[in-house]
Design brief:
Layout (H helix, E strand, L loop, with lengths): L5 E6 L7 H14 L3 E5 L3 H6 L2 E4 L26 H13 L4 E6 L1 H14 L3 E5 L15 H22 L1 E7 L6 H10 L3 E3 L7 H13 L5 E6 L4 H12 L4 E6 L11 H19 L5 E6 L2 E6 H4 L8 H10 L2
Parallel strand pairs: 1-2, 1-4, 4-5, 5-10, 6-8, 6-9, 7-8
Antiparallel strand pairs: 2-3, 10-11
Helix pairs in contact: 1-9, 5-6, 6-11
The structure holds adenosine-5'-triphosphate.
Length: 324
Amino acid sequence: MYKINCIGILTSGGDAPGMNAAIRAVTRAAIFNNVKVKAIYHGYKGLITGNITEFKTQNVSNIIQQGGTILKTARCTEFMTKEGRQAAYDNMRREEIDALVVIGGDGTLTGARIFAQEFEVPIVGLPGTIDNDLWGTDSTIGYDTALNTIMQAVDKIRDTATSHERLFFIEVMGRDAGFLALNSALATGCETAVIPEKQTSVEELEDLIRNGFRKSKNSSMVIVAEGGVGAQGLAERVKQNFPEYDVRVSILGHIQRGGSPSAYDRILASRMGVAAIDALLDEQRNVMIGIVNDEIVNVPFSKAIKDDKQIGEDRINVLQILSI
Ligand code: ATP
């Protein structure tokens, strides 16, 4: 049996609110189980360069409420090469790290899967991304906070949109996944959401806007997921056909990543962090911790990163019905 005496922990890819709560939970659950914790800085980059330090319980004090990640994060192309991963493995051996807990999105879990297979390293992943695009979990750490941040911003935009009788295109994050766009549109009562999972033609959009204004709405808001033509591109096309409308664009940008995590994300991160250590000690390997119907589940990396998490057709339908 492979005994785990020491784990390494890292955050990688895009930062997400709640990553710190996860780091705290993993660290404390490990120490609770007499397992040593080594903190790896800057994601896989720190594993390659050896930017590693031991964490005690005090190192994670007072961070549960902080956004971002105290371990920093990075995109690391070197880890995509065999030589890079060999250097990472050599550092793991040098530091006597027996297993890894990685917190990040699909890229991070893809890297973990390859590394685990190549060097037979036990790895457990936590889904840390605002995009909510990982299969096998109802929610990812950071998604709820980002959704609430968007909701608050859109509520504010609505005040000015109504006062000036304007048509707003609001761009949110989610290049390949429309969870943030669709659900923020639902939560703020927007006309529609333009998302990667569903084709929306400019004609359809124009019909919706025309109907909306005709039915005495004095302002309109459309949420657009980034990527594609984006909010700016759509606004320009619509402006050409409706010169009478006062069209504006708002790109929410990086505020969506920041801020103190919501209660939901803190609790989710805490439960998942403890579950990650339980899974490793239970000899689970190469799994992501997920949550389904409020139950913690272990999802093989191969399933978590496959690209077909359903957006929820019923939600698209509800948005349509409610925008009449
Ligand atoms: P987010 O979804 O929030 O952007 P992410 O984890 O998907 O987060 P990526 O930038 O896609 O973010 O991936 C993070 C890191 O994971 C990469 O910089 C790289 O170090 C590693 N990684 C991604 N894909 C691979 C791969 N195919 N092989 C090895 N490592 C990878």
